[in-house]
Automatic annotation (TrEMBL):
Residues 92-106 have a biased composition (Acidic residues). Residues 1-32, 75-214, 252-292 are annotated as: Disordered. This is Protein kinase domain-containing protein. GO terms for cellular component: cytosol. Residues 1-10, 17-32, 75-91, 150-214 have a biased composition (Basic and acidic residues). InterPro entries: Kinase-like_dom_sf, STE20_Ser-Thr_kinase. Residues 132-148, 254-279 have a biased composition (Polar residues). The lineage of its organism: Eukaryota, Metazoa, Chordata, Craniata, Vertebrata.
């Protein structure tokens, strides 16, 4: 009959464990099956009323169950036990314990035994010693044969590891060299670009200076030309004024030296000062020259 909650799952194993414990110590060689935790676990599983019996999830949380080794631990223990048993079986040395047919032939106490030196020694003892020696030799040879490939495999593995390590070191060196070479090329490229930019800036600066010098020279040239024109104009004006002065001087001298002027002067002296002659009545040649 199925019981809800899994309360009957531990019933049959618990009874079997209890019978094994009650049968005596020769049925159980583990002290854990005599511990208090185990007894409490069994008593809990053997509760007759299944409604009062704890479910499987709660039983699995008991200290006795939690203290049990895991599957991995059991596998490791079994493997270690098999390896130890195999090693002991290969290295076992049997001691000769005698035979029922062999008569005891011991000397007096304190005297050395002469069994090995007596001719016609027991064939059984010699055969046993021979088998024991052969077994020992075979065991050592087998061990050497087993260790030989392992040793060779170990050496090959070590060589392979060293080779892999050396290869990784070489790859790292090569990678570092490539990175350094790339960085060096990038630095050189940046320097070249900076030099090119500096050269362009210098060219632009020199071109700007040249243009400024040309503009300054053009300005100076225009200014000199303007000053030259002004100077020429001033010279022309000066020459014109000099010519006018010269004409006026000549006219005045002509007037003074003419008979009419002499008569006028004498009449002026006689009659006194008169009003000045208006410009319209000046000599004709002076006015014509001025108009020119």
């Amino acid at each position: 009959m199925h019981v809800p909650g899994g309360r009957d799952v531990r019933w049959a194993p618990a009874i079997a464990d209890q019978k094994r414990v009650d049968s005596g110590p020769d049925m159980s060689h583990d002290d854990s099956f005599r511990s208090k935790k185990f007894i409490e676990f069994i008593d809990t599983c053997l509760i007759k009323n299944y409604m009062n019996r704890p479910p499987t999830e709660q039983l699995l949380k008991y200290p006795f169950i939690r203290d049990q080794p895991t599957e991995r631990q059991v596998r490791i223990q079994l493997k270690d036990h098999i390896d130890r048993s195999r090693k002991k079986r290969d290295e076992t040395e049997y001691e000769y314990s005698g035979s029922e047919d062999e008569e005891e032939n011991h000397g007096e106490e304190g005297e050395p035994s002469s069994i090995m030196n007596v001719p016609g020694e027991s064939t059984l003892r010699r055969e046993f010693l021979r088998l024991q020696q052969e077994n020992k030799s075979n065991s050592e040879a087998l061990k050497q044969q087993q260790m030989g490939p392992q040793h060779r495999d170990s050496e090959a593995h070590i060589k392979q590891l060293l080779h892999e390590r050396q290869r990784r070191i070489e790859e790292q060196k090569e990678e570092r060299r490539r990175v350094e070479e790339q960085q060096r090329r990038e630095r050189e490229q940046r320097k070249q670009q900076e030099k090119e930019q500096q050269r362009r800036r210098d060219d632009l600066r020199r071109e700007e200076e040249r243009r400024m010098a040309e503009r300054e020279q053009e300005y100076i040239r225009h200014k000199l030309e303007e000053e030259q024109r002004q100077l020429e104009i001033l010279q022309q004006q000066l020459l014109q004024e000099q010519a006018l002065l010269l004409v006026e001087e000549r006219s005045r001298l002509n007037k003074q030296n003419s008979p009419l002027s002499i008569t006028k002067l004498s009449s002026v002296d006689l009659s006194g000062p008169q009003s000045q002659t208006p410009p319209s009545q000046r000599p004709l040649d002076f006015q014509d020259h001025k108009n020119e």
